[in-house]
Amino acid sequence: MKSLLYPHPLSLPSFSSSISTAKPRHLTPPFLKLDSSAVKTPTLTVRAALDSATVNGFSFDTRNPTVSSSYRSSSLPKPNPTVLEAQTRVCTGPTQTKPLGEDQAFKVLDTILRSATGELKDEEPVSRAQLGAFFAAMTIRANCFPEATQWSEGESRAMNKYWPLLVRALPPDVVFIADPEGSLMGIGSSIGPQFVGNGTSEMRLVGALREVLAGGHLGFEEVQGCLRDVLPLKSTTEDGTATGVSESLLSALLIGQRMNRETDRELKAYCLAFDDELGETPIADVKSLTHYGEPYDGNTRFFRSTLFVAAVRSCYAESSVLHGAEWMPPKGGVTEEQMLKFMGADTSLTPSQAKVLLEDEGVGFTYISHREARPSLYSLVKLREHIKKRPPLATSEKVQQFVKARGKEAIVTGFYHEGYEDSLLMLMKRRGVHSGLVVKGEEGALSMTTRLRPVNSSKGIPVNYCSGFRSLSMASACEIDGVSRQSFNLEVNAVDYGFEPTDTPRTDRSVLKNIGLGLTALHGQKGPAYDRIVLNAGMVDHLLGCDGAEDISVALDRAREAIDSGKALERLWNYVRVSKQVRHRPAMCVK
Q1: Which has fewest Cβ within 10 Å: 132, 137, 406, 536?
Q2: What are the backbone angles phi and psi of residue 338, rounded to the nearest 5°?
Q3: pTM confidence score
Q4: Would residue 257 be called left, alpha or beta, if left means φ above 0 and alpha means ψ between -120 and 50 degrees?
Q5: Which run of H or E residues covers position 386?
Q6: Which residues have a Cβ under 8 Å from the Cβ of 391 and sit 6 or more positions away?
Q7: Is-contact 437 492, C-beta < 8 A?
């Protein structure tokens, strides 16, 4: 275990990053240094750092909220809460679905009927996206789910009462989703069998949905064709159409493919569909580049460390691209974009502009917003909130290359549900990177923790489980065979590498607290956040086969030195400063 990937066991000394008493040496400018008394309180630390930086020439957006849920755009219409609660139970997989009880089923269908007839006054109307997701889930459950997760008796009684009324009140596209063959509801409606949609785009979508609603799967070209036909999704009109396509149909496709568990070819289609949306991908002149694919919907409970890990790794020429969104459902948690925006960085860089930050010797990492890199897919934010559960995009968007490198490339991402680790590694190999790593982190994120595994932990893949591959030559994963690629899987126990077992710091949606924990750690204050940053920087270097990281103890010490010297903190503030400057450079400088 201690040698991890390397065939010869390493003799690792026992050490703890929590007990060092050496005074760190800081190279950062005086205005970035934190008072030693303030270091003990993360909230005070970050406020002091931000205030000091503002005074000394940095311009921070002090109006930014400090809680992640506040970043949700007020222009987004809210979903109906009654139907949304039902969607959390039924819009999921064949073993996770929880059938509705009779009372809830009657309430949900009554809410849908009153919304369709304009009589719902005490709640938000049920959106077309919600109708598509809910009825797609009901149809798939009836057609192909195991008996335990098919309709309950209460759901059947509720549908028998309300469907004769609903079939007259709902639009044809929703009736099609609920009863595509005209036989599911028992009243012999001809709407579903005869429905073809409006226009070429909807016709293709309807054809694909007939397969998905029956529990089937689609081909690579079929998925890409559907996506390219309807995206980007424009603003919705009163009758629920957008860009000539019904949101009911599109939401039914997205949630339906997730419920059927996407095949590799379907995931590849989602992953690659818009690679050429902005033209040719920029290539950065760096020797090593790691793409970090954190879940776009953020963390709601625990410290999110990847931004600070990227600052550490940049100190020894391991460049990183972080990508994500300011706010994304279903969790709407703390994201890198929220933190960077709060700290005053420009979070609207194009991939070409982000390339400049990678090549800057004083920065060496960058962040790219989904909004800027994939506007077509970003247009689905509202629809994703209304379907409630994660669509296939939640998996594929983590495996992206918005900027490429002249040197080696790697992708790191996290997963939660068992089985998706293999799909993610498949997508990484399809991307042609030299190394790939998936981590079972807390909240499905990609960061390893220093806490002990609970003795009575539930079955399944444990937190800190890692699986990946690395090429044994400069050839990319697309160019080599299995013999030339080393695969691995292991569970990382931080105690084995000298870390004191500690619980991961909680942030509970607080952007400010997450920044405070990170800045306090980068200032050199030892503790759980410091350990987590060191562990994830050094361990990722080692597992990906980065230069100088063959010995895990050396890799971890290298990460500590980057922090204790003040270099990582300095690079983070350099990013804030340079990100605002690069937007104003002539276009020829950022190609």
Answers
A1: 406
A2: -60, -45
A3: 0.88
A4: alpha
A5: helix 381-387
A6: 254, 255, 257, 258, 380, 384
A7: no
